[in-house]
Amino acid sequence: MRTRRTTLSTLTEASAVPDLLTHVLVGYIIGTLLSIRYERLRPAHVTLVMIGALSPDFVKIQLLIPDGLASALLGVPFSWSPLHTLGGSVLVIALGSLLLAPEYRAQAIVLFAIGALSHHVLDVLLMTPTGEAYAVFWPLTEYRPPAGGLFLSSDRWPAAVAGLGAALVWAVARYSEGATGTDSSTID
Amino acid sequence: MQSLPAGQRGRILAAVVLAALLGGCLLWAGATPGDPIDGAYPDEVEVTPAPESYVGEQVSLGGQVVDTDPVVIATRASGYGQFTLVGADERLQNADGPLDEGDRVTAFGTLEDESTLVVERTTTRQRAETRYMLVVSAIAGLWVAGRFVRGWRFDRETLAFVPRAQSSEADRRASRDHGEDDRRANPSDHPVNADGGERRA
């Protein structure tokens, strides 16, 4: 049923490319604030929060391999959508943590999860045509929370606001590092 | 690498189980009605070929404006699949002015008859925004990738990523090409040195 996509709806779908930058900037802000609070968190760990913050948008692989193509290739119905739900995030995060050496995995799972959570919170706040958000808690429930209606994923001001916030926490992190005497690169 | 260390066996097993669960989710979501992301309401793909069977139902129709008084959209690029939108301009949630021909809109509402949608909400999106989004998303992806490469390195002994040593990034960069592997002859030692990720207590 969903495998028949007309030309125009493919166009509108392609225009649903998420604003990754806002998500990544928010991940940077959260990660950097955590690194100010917890000294053992270094810029490398901030990166993990940022990766977590963009991980739900791995679903955009569907722009390269649409659901219809995937199910034609596999011969069974297929949908990438679970990647953009909490259930999918849990699995993606667990898989991602396995790429790291064992002693870093528990910490990485926490940092990835913080980032992914920020992504879902922001996306539930998005404006949608139907006034409902996506089924964020899938597969636990198909309940769709009411959409926040705050902004469209194509709006530019959220990235600008997040960019200002990121510049601010970057400056604060630099200052606090200078104050505590730890030297390390902060221009990441 | 011929015989896998014990730790790697568990890791591969975990990866296989997780990948199977994830794959199962993707197949399950494909096979069950009601996609987690796609709207819970019928869209133009289902409605356009058989609008009569959706009369009285709430639907979400995406398309291009082909007439403005009243607002008419075509759900197919060919201009086929025309629906008159009642109240589209008044219910526009993310722009002020009236809709123009060529605008891309998604209208949500109740299908009153085969070609009339009484709109609850209209959302519009400009074509240029798509290009902007692709560019900034690419920048974001490269930023994260760059940070990851700078902060982490692939350890061939453990076949896993470990944080790069952190104490002085500048010195490190200067000597990165010389003997980094020598300094790390014993990879199981490095979590306790002063680098990025310390072992959790």
List keywords for this structure.
heterodimer, A: 188 residues, mainly alpha, 7 helices, 0% strand, disordered N terminus, disordered C terminus, B: 201 residues, alpha+beta, OB fold (Dihydrolipoamide Acetyltransferase, E2P), 5-stranded mixed barrel, two-stranded antiparallel ribbon, 24% strand
How does this structure look, described?
The complex is a heterodimer of chains A (188) and B (201). Chain A is mainly α. Chain A contains seven helices and no strands. With 201 residues, chain B is an alpha+beta fold. Chain B has helices at residues 6-31, 44-47, 127-151, 169-175, 180-183; strands at residues 58-68, 71-74, 82-86, 104-113, 116-125, 152-155, 160-163.
* Mean pLDDT figure of chain B: 79
Q: Into how many domains do the coordinates of chain A divide?
A: 1
Biggest beta-sheet profile of chain A: none
Q: Beta-strand percentage of chain B? A: 15-25%
Q: What's the Cα radius of gyration of chain B?
A: 28 Å
Strand-pairing-aware structural class of chain B = alpha+beta
Spatial strand order of the main sheet of chain B: 1-2-3-5-4
SSE topology sketch:
The complex is a heterodimer of chains A (188) and B (201).
Chain A: H1 7-14, H2 20-37, H3 43-54, H4 67-74, H5 86-97, H6 102-124, H7 157-180
Helix pairs in contact in A: 2-3, 2-6, 2-7, 3-6, 5-6
Chain B: H1 6-31, H2 44-47, E1 58-68, E2 71-74, E3 82-86, E4 104-113, E5 116-125, H3 127-151, E6 152-155, E7 160-163, H4 169-175, H5 180-183
Parallel strand pairs in B: 3-5
Antiparallel strand pairs in B: 1-2, 1-4, 2-3, 4-5, 6-7
